[in-house]
């Protein structure tokens, strides 16, 4: 799954996004490009679960 998170502006944001995803699925693979604001996730969690958790944590994603 690929998401764009427009308010992800720094490494700290990227770490927070990664932590949120890992809280849902500790085995998830997360690749983040802060410059393009893109997050690539391989996870057993559904897109809906990820979107909900990221939105709750202040990083509302859009499916890219």
Please characterize this protein's 3D structure.
The chain is α+β, with helices and mostly antiparallel strands and 64 residues long. It has one domain: Alpha-Beta Plaits (2-Layer Sandwich), CATH 3.30.70.100. The chain has two helices and four strands. It has helices at residues 11-24, 47-56; strands at residues 2-4, 29-33, 38-42, 62-63. It has a four-stranded antiparallel sheet, with helices on one face. The protein is globular and about 25 Å long. It comes from Acinetobacter amyesii. Residues 1-62 form the HMA domain. One of its GO terms (molecular function) is metal ion binding.
Short summary:
This protein is an alpha+beta fold and about 60 residues long. It contains 2 helices and 4 strands, in the order βαββαβ. It has a 4-stranded antiparallel β-sheet with strand order 2-3-1-4, with helices on one face.
SSE topology:
Layout: E1 2-4, H1 11-24, E2 29-33, E3 38-42, H2 47-56, E4 62-63
Antiparallel strand pairs: 1-3, 1-4, 2-3
Helix pairs in contact: 1-2
Organism: Acinetobacter amyesii
Keywords: Metal-binding
InterPro entries: Heavy-metal-associated_CS, HMA_dom, HMA_dom_sf
Tally of structural domains: 1
- Average pLDDT reading: 97
Q: Looking at the structure, what is the overall shape? A: globular
What's the helical proportion of residues?
25-40%
Number of helices: 2
The Rg value, from CA coordinates, equals 10 Å
Would you list the SSEs in sequence order as H and E?
EHEEHE
Low-pLDDT parts are: none
Largest sheet: 4 strands, antiparallel
Just name the CATH architecture. Answer: 2-Layer Sandwich
- Beta fraction of the residues? 15-25%
CATH class value: Alpha Beta
CATH topology, by name, is: Alpha-Beta Plaits
Number of strands: 4
Strand order of the largest sheet: 2-3-1-4
End-to-end gap: 8 Å
Query: From the helix content, strand content and strand pairing, which structural class follows?
Result: alpha+beta
